[in-house]
Design a protein that fits this description.
By secondary structure, the protein is of the alpha/beta class. It is 36% helix and 22% strand. The strands form five sheets. A seven-stranded parallel β-sheet has the order 10-17-18-20-21-22-23. The chain has a six-stranded mixed β-sheet with strand order 4-3-9-24-25-26, with no helix packed on it. The protein has a six-stranded mixed β-sheet with strand order 11-12-13-14-16-15, with helices on both faces.
Length: 567
């Protein structure tokens, strides 16, 4: 008599038991987020309560009960009903300029020249010999008299101190007589191509320089040291993570900026992801990268360099945006084009040939038509699909109706900043008139035509806070809730679209939708935790929602009430 079959049955039972225990043993994770309201921006699983993170990746999404049963981790955070969004992305801002604006005289929101004079007088009084006073953010549209200022306004309070003040859009500079003296600007100085020197009735420069005319002043502006540039970048990044941003697209960097990013990353001091767009006017940077190629996902995905930015025109506020017909409030002026169609086609061809994305600043309808024509021509010449190349128009503020559908047809991404709409709405219709305003900040029309709209702020032109951009996108109202029904409300986004605008659409615009932009298993653990349910709360509450936590690559880089810290 043999017992071998019984031993075999026992062995199989033990094996099955071990398998059952192993199968039901919780998986290891590094962080669990429980009891939240999770909006994933993933249509396959739009809502959840909890997230499991291992290292820099998301490894689980589900109910709190599911995540607790499937995972264990040394760091477990009870969200207590707070809302979790995919890490917010700003698809268009200026990192170093934002930091510089924080270090200079703040002119944003000032309602008169007299108010600005007081600030400049105080700064000049503290200034060391030979130093300059720099400021950012003046806007004549806020003043009772909306004409451009004059150098005499600054001369009266600055003495011998050079004063250099950048307009809120970055496309005009206001200086005192001392700066013009240093730069050699006189009545005989000619306007450069793509630029304008504002003059009085006698042809004398008044102290305001627009677009390419700024270059003659910038050439004599003292260059900041590397330590000053680094400090500006640090300050900007601390602001961004405080506002819940996990990635920003830096529009117009040079080799010095990139070197600072790399140094900070090597030191573990790059708290968020930077998608670098090279300054197309900086020949050294462009030629070097076209020769060596793009740099993608360096330092664990913290730094990417694969895009180039050019300017097709100026800004609407300073009447430099290129329009098909004259400005409604400045007959005879159609704005400025800053690049020729031929040069734009050549730039697009070179970018495509070297694997780089091209982003072109285009605000006026004439500029947008020119860029669409140039991109379409190059795509057809190369027999390629523009949708895959993801060339971008930055701003796309005024578009003629027939061009709205062309963005999708040609394969061009309109990268837009919702807060521009609510900042510009008090005067935009005066600039372009009642007919062209139908194509202004036309988010709904573009989306309905099949386009996606990556959202940004253009900081320091606007507040970098993405929740204010979200609010502008869904309300088309200012922070006081005016106008009551929204400005041209038919062009509003839905809340779902606004969420995509600042998450997955921004990721797509940077070729990163496979690794970020939504809360999905396998993607980077980039998350923004906020105090309110932004998808369902009262509209007026959105701008005041508090960012509770910013997570980049599974690391908490900022908690509410704390300064940004090393990742």
């Amino acid at each position: 008599m043999t017992r071998k079959p019984a031993y075999g049955i026992l062995f199989l039972a033990l094996l099955a038991g071990a398998y059952f225990l192993f199968r039901n043993r919780p998986e290891e994770a590094s962080m669990l987020l429980l009891n939240g309201i999770v909006y994933t921006a993933n249509e396959g699983q739009p809502r959840a309560e909890a997230i499991a993170i291992l290292g820099d990746r998301i490894v689980g999404i589900g109910t709190t009960r599911e995540i607790e049963s499937l995972f264990r981790a040394p760091n477990v955070i009870d969200l207590k009903g707070k809302t979790v969004l995919p890490g917010l992305v700003d698809a268009h801002l200026h990192v170093e300029e934002t930091g510089i604006s924080l270090m200079n005289v703040d002119l944003t929101g000032r309602n008169s020249i007299k108010e600005i004079q007081g600030l400049i007088a105080a700064a000049a009084g503290k200034n060391s010999a030979g130093g300059w006073v720099r400021g950012w953010g003046w806007d004549q549209n806020r003043w009772e008299k909306k004409s451009m200022p004059r150098h005499e306004d600054l001369d009266a309070v600055s003495g011998a101190t050079p004063v250099y003040l950048v307009r809120i859009d970055g496309h005009a500079v206001w200086v005192n007589a001392k700066v013009m003296e240093i730069a050699g600007i006189t009545k005989m100085t000619r306007d450069p191509e793509g630029g304008k020197i504002i003059r009085d009735g006698g042809g004398n420069p008044t102290g305001v320089f627009i677009d390419n005319a700024i270059q003659s002043l910038a050439a004599v502006l003292p260059s900041p040291s590397e330590s000053e540039r680094t400090e500006a970048i640090r300050r900007a990044m601390a602001l961004f993570v405080k506002d819940g941003l996990t990635e920003v697209h830096d529009m117009g960097a040079d080799l010095g900026t990139i070197a600072i990013y790399k140094k900070l990353a090597e030191e573990g001091q790059l708290p968020l992801r930077i998608y670098v767009v090279l300054d197309g006017g900086n020949r050294d940077a462009v030629e070097q990268y076209l020769k060596t190629g793009a740099e993608v996902d360096l330092y664990g995905g913290r730094l990417t360099v694969r895009s180039i930015k050019l300017y097709a025109d100026g800004a609407l506020g300073s009447r430099g945006a290129a329009l098909l017909e004259p400005y409604g409030d400045d007959p005879g002026n159609r704005g400025l084009t800053l690049i020729s169609s031929g040069d734009l086609r050549d730039a697009a061809d070179r970018a495509l040939s070297h694997g780089f994305q091209l982003c072109v600043h285009s605000i006026g309808d004439r500029a947008n038509t020119m860029v669409l024509d140039a991109f379409d021509s190059v795509y057809k010449m190369k027999h390629m699909n523009g949708l895959e190349k993801r060339f971008r128009v930055e701003h796309a503020q005024i578009i003629r109706p027939s061009d709205i559908v062309r963005f999708k047809q040609v394969g061009v991404i309109p990268s837009m900043q919702p807060v521009h709409c609510t900042s510009d709405m008090p005067w935009a219709e005066e600039r372009v008139g009642p007919v062209r305003i139908a194509g202004a900040y036309a988010w709904r029309s573009l989306i309905d035509a099949g386009s996606i709209i990556p959202g940004g702020s253009d900081s320091p032109v606007e507040d970098a806070n993405p929740l204010r951009g979200f609010y502008a996108a869904v309300s088309r109202q200012d922070l006081a809730g005016k106008p009551d029904s929204g400005w041209y409300p038919r062009e509003r986004m839905t809340r779902s679209e606004a969420l995509k605008s600042f998450t997955v659409w921004g990721a797509h615009a940077a070729f990163q939708e496979g690794v970020k932009g939504s809360v999905e298993k396998g993607k980077w653990a980039d998350l923004t935790v906020i105090s309110e349910d932004i998808m369902n709360c009262e509209l007026r509450k959105i701008p005041d929602i508090r960012v509770e936590m910013t997570v980049v690559g599974g690391q908490v880089v900022r908690l509410s009430g704390e300064e940004a810290r090393k990742p």
